[in-house]
Design a protein that fits this description.
The complex is a heterodimer of chains A (486) and B (450). Chain A is an all-alpha fold. Chain A contains 17 helices and two strands. Chain B has 20 helices and three strands.
């Protein structure tokens, strides 16, 4: 029975258990639900859960364990030279799986019968041609050992599937009996069902933690792998970045960090003044009507996907900066530059800074404003000398969060900043960032044994640590500030 | 001494009045006006940038919704297309697109001669080059589907070459054609005549929405079909995976979670995950879903898993806010008439929080729809010109997504792809506008003040 069929069978049994248990609970009190501890539906749910929980758990466990056991047993039967080390063993097992899968397809398409497939011998039949007929392409001739192993693999997989079906159906039926027999008037079905629901709720909320664990684990393990192949001193302190997939590459992170920080700096120079002044105007000067129109319009910027900003940088901003500034000033002739990416990331960050600062400025108590205006200060003096100092920690927090977003921004720099890792002060030079290089090293054909690919994980780890640190710091500042007026 | 000081200032100090502003006050008022002006400038700058961006995208992209086609009669001669003459599908298949290309260009040249359209300096081969390279494949598929067409003459409407399309849209001009090795000015003059004769027309580009991606040489045939389908599959899976988990997590954190280390850890995690750069999620997907769990690269399933993890914090934050907005009196009333805690939440709090959850979900999905960077890392940027099959198997097939298609077209050399890229952005923005408007309408319709 295939997994889908099995799932369908479990579902049918669960539905049956629901109605049987509900029916039995009602029957035990001669159809008077008031004598039951819980509402009749809860007895039904309890029946369904006692079918689903053990059967699904067993199915998942079996699906994980069976391939492992199978591979271990098959590779034990293979001759030693085919499983000499981890890489060759992996390749041989891949061959075995492919031949086994090919035989399955051949049988399914009717090219060969079940008994013939198990009796195949290399030399007597051209296995490669046979499998090619049913659409399975093999790179090389099948060796006799691999063929035998594949036939073994198929036999054992069949037994495994049969065992799986039997075990799970037995568990589901047992669960059904268990759930139905417990449907008695004094049984606290609601409490049991609610406990299961609570467990599900806890599991769902743990996914956030699991994601973080997954992120950290995936990057830490690959980063260690990278540092075992490439000295960490060179990674952190080398001034050149020139990966070479034939070996002998320089993978210094400093040019990438420089490019990232330079672009972030320019984007902050664009976003902070514009965002802050926009927020001040909206919070202190604008009439209600203007505010209701302008605020959502500025926030539209935040809803546009970053790849759109990337195209804007590539097609419009880059060429414009090159033709109007860089070339007349003799600063370079590249459309993609630090300036291009910085300005566009700055635009992207305007709504972020303005809406955060707006919230913070609005949170400054009105009494402070009234006091300052009452002493004769003008509105702008109030803003500059009273409101901004009071809101400063929050605004600094907002700026740090925006900086962390700029550091982690990918699509705009991929399309607008260029790919050459350079240490230069000229803002019209093309430079590159950590995110660009992560994309560059991990797209296309990648070989997860070479330091040139693995370096992307070390870059990702650095990026993760920097952005996370900035964010935690920013949140800490904002939280500290909020307590001030509460 | 007192005399001097009494006399001095009295003579020099101007008469103070609240009706005439002092120099100091004038300076302060000027500063006030300047300050206000800075604010106005900041707002107009940011709106101007938004407007410029949208303007350039629409200016460059709208033309991709129109497409030049050539219409002329094509005689599907039996000698070339069915050399054996028995209409056997196996034998018909042996005639490659090259054979069909010949048929098309011969028919095109013949039609021009019949109409008396000539242009000096354009060879028959160059006339044939005005036909898209994709047209032969389309015609072949049409003939294979319906072998009875062989031997008849059909009125074919086929794609014109990308440069012809560009000429009609004004992107290709006589000056650019001078430097172009795919077209020359004489061919453009011929196209002008063809346009006057009605052989070349521009019509609405349905193929842009249905065709799969096409190779570098054939921008005119490239469409968003696979990308739209891939994005739809992903959004469907994100909805199914992310919403139940997100809502369940929010319910737990808002209604049941005790104050302890574990729930604190979850809280901190959620707020930090919302700030992790999206590319880091791509690394996670590559390392865990593809390398560790062995899921197929470029598949929509992996894309949806990665996007779900990214969207989860957004949905949790929105859901928690709307659960918190349900007043405690509702809970107290339910508990007071004997409902259990679980019944209170599922029968009363959740239905009342539903509109807010829905709005948050739609906005979360809108962000998810535009996400690009993580999808590049899990291989969705690969060239895919086959449609994924129907779900559930189709979830494992390679596909691409709308924003990724925007990116991969933008990185190609031919300027015709930049037009397509902008066109794809317009499609993407239309979807985003629809989703956001839906969210706003929902909020207006169901918003409740307690």
């Amino acid at each position: 029975m295939s997994v889908l069929m099995l799932l369908a069978a479990i579902a049918v049994l669960a539905i049956a258990a629901f109605f049987l248990a509900r029916q039995r609970a009602l029957a035990s009190t001669q159809g008077n639900p008031r004598l039951l501890h819980s509402l009749p539906g809860y007895y039904g749910w309890y029946g369904a859960i006692s079918v689903l929980a053990p059967a699904l758990a067993a199915l998942i466990l079996w699906l994980i364990v069976q391939p492992m056991v199978l591979e271990a047993r098959i590779s034990a039967t293979l001759p030693a030279d085919l499983v000499a080390d981890a890489t060759t063993a992996e390749l041989t097992m891949a061959d075995v799986r492919r031949v086994a899968g090919g035989l399955d397809t051949a049988i399914a398409s009717g090219a060969i019968s079940e008994t013939d497939a198990q009796a195949l011998v290399t030399g007597a039949t051209d296995i490669r041609a046979l499998l090619a007929q049913s659409g399975v392409a093999l790179a090389a001739e099948v060796s006799p050992e691999v063929l035998t192993a594949a036939q073994d693999y198929r036999t054992q997989a069949h037994w495994g599937a049969a065992g799986r079906t039997a075990l799970i159906l037995v568990l589901a039926v047992l669960g059904l009996f268990w759930g139905v027999t417990r449907a008695q008037p004094e049984f606290r079905a609601r409490n049991q069902v609610e406990r299961v629901i609570l467990a599900l709720l806890i599991a769902a909320s743990s996914i956030a933690v699991l994601t973080t664990v997954g992120i950290v684990w995936s990057m830490v393990s690959e980063t260690f792998d990278f540092f075992s192949k490439y000295p960490y001193q060179d990674f952190f302190f080398s001034l050149t970045w020139s990966p070479n997939f034939r070996g002998g590459s320089d993978l210094g992170i400093i040019p990438l960090i420089w490019g990232t920080l330079y672009i972030t700096l320019i984007s902050m120079l664009v976003a902070v003044p514009i965002g802050l002044f926009a927020a001040i105007y909206l919070a202190e000067y604008a009439s209600r009507r203007v505010r209701n129109w302008v605020k959502p319009l500025i926030e539209v910027i935040a809803g546009i996907p970053t790849v759109v900003f990337g195209i804007f940088a590539l097609v419009t901003v880059g060429p414009a900066l090159r033709d109007w500034f860089a070339e007349p000033m003799g600063l370079g002739n590249s459309g993609s530059s630090v300036m291009t990416a910085g300005i566009v990331i700055g635009i992207l960050n305007i709504p972020f800074i303005s809406s955060l600062s707006d919230d913070i400025i609005n949170a400054v108590p009105q009494t402070l404003r009234d006091g300052s205006l009452g002493l004769g200060a003008t509105k702008s003096e109030t803003v500059r000398q009273v409101i901004l100092p009071a809101a400063l920690p929050g605004i600094v927090g907002a700026i740090l969060m925006a900086a962390s977003r700029a550091i982690g921004e990918t699509m705009i720099v991929v399309l607008g900043a260029g790919a050459a890792a350079k240490l230069s002060l000229n803002p019209f030079d093309a430079m590159t960032t950590m995110t660009v290089k992560i994309v560059g090293q991990l797209t296309g054909d990648t070989d997860f044994a070479s330091p040139e690919t693995l370096v992307a994980f070390a870059l990702g780890m650095t990026l993760f640590v920097i952005t996370l640190g900035l964010n935690i710091f920013a949140l800490w500042i904002v939280r500290k500030y909020r307590e001030q007026y509460e | 001494m007192t005399d001097i000081s009494a006399a001095g200032p009295a003579r020099h100090r101007p008469r103070q009045s609240i009706l005439t502003a002092s120099a100091n006050m004038k300076r302060r008022n000027a500063a006030e006006v300047r300050f206000k002006l800075y604010g106005l400038i900041a707002i107009s700058l940011s709106l101007a940038m938004l407007a410029t961006m949208l303007f350039t995208i629409f200016r460059d992209g709208v033309s991709s919704f129109r497409q030049a086609t050539l219409s002329f009669p094509v005689e599907l001669s039996a000698e070339t297309l069915d050399p054996t003459g028995n209409r056997n599908p196996e034998d018909l298949r042996k005639v490659t697109t090259v054979g069909y290309q010949k048929v098309l260009s011969q028919a095109f040249v013949a039609e021009l001669q019949a109409r008396g359209i000539t242009q000096d300096g354009v060879s028959d081969k160059q006339i044939g080059d005005l036909i898209s390279r994709d047209a032969a494949g389309t015609l072949r598929a049409q003939v294979l589907a319906n072998p009875d067409l062989i031997g008849t003459t059909i009125d074919a409407t086929i794609l014109a070459a990308g440069r012809v399309d560009g000429f009609l849209k004004g992107r290709v001009t006589f000056e650019t054609a001078e430097r172009d090795n795919q077209i020359n000015p004489d061919q453009l003059r011929l196209v002008e005549q063809l346009r006057d004769a009605g052989i070349v027309q521009s019509s609405f580009n349905w193929g842009f929405f249905t065709n799969p991606d096409a190779s570098d040489q054939r921008p005119e045939a490239a469409g968003l079909g696979v990308a739209l389908l891939g994005s739809a599959y992903m959004m469907l899976m994100v909805l199914v995976m992310c919403v139940p988990v997100g809502v369940a997590a929010s319910i737990y954190l808002e209604e049941f979670a005790p104050k302890n280390r574990w729930t604190d850890a979850i809280e901190v995690n959620i707020s930090n995950l919302a700030a992790v750069p999206s590319i880091v999620f791509g690394i996670l997907g590559l390392a865990i879903f593809i390398n560790f769990a062995g899921m197929p690269q470029s598949s929509t399933l992996v894309g949806a898993l990665v996007i779900s993890l990214m969207t989860l914090p957004t949905i949790i934050i929105a859901t928690r806010a709307s659960i918190r907005a349900v007043p405690p009196s509702i809970r107290d009333a339910a508990l007071g008439v004997g409902a259990s805690k679980m019944q209170t939440v599922f029968h009363h709090v959740l239905p009342l929080a539903m509109p807010g959850i829905l709005t948050g979900t739609i906005l979360g999905l809108a962000t998810a729809l535009g996400e690009t960077a993580p999808l590049l890392l899990i291989g969705m940027v690969a060239f895919v010109d086959n449609y994924p099959s129907a779900p559930p198997e189709g979830f494992l097939d390679p596909a691409t997504a709308l924003p990724v298609q925007v990116f991969s077209w933008a990185s190609r050399a031919d300027p015709a792809f930049i037009e397509r890229s902008n066109g794809a952005i317009i499609v993407l923005l239309v979807f985003l506008v629809i989703m956001n408007v839906a969210a706003i309408l929902l909020r207006r319709r169901f918003e409740r003040r307690w």
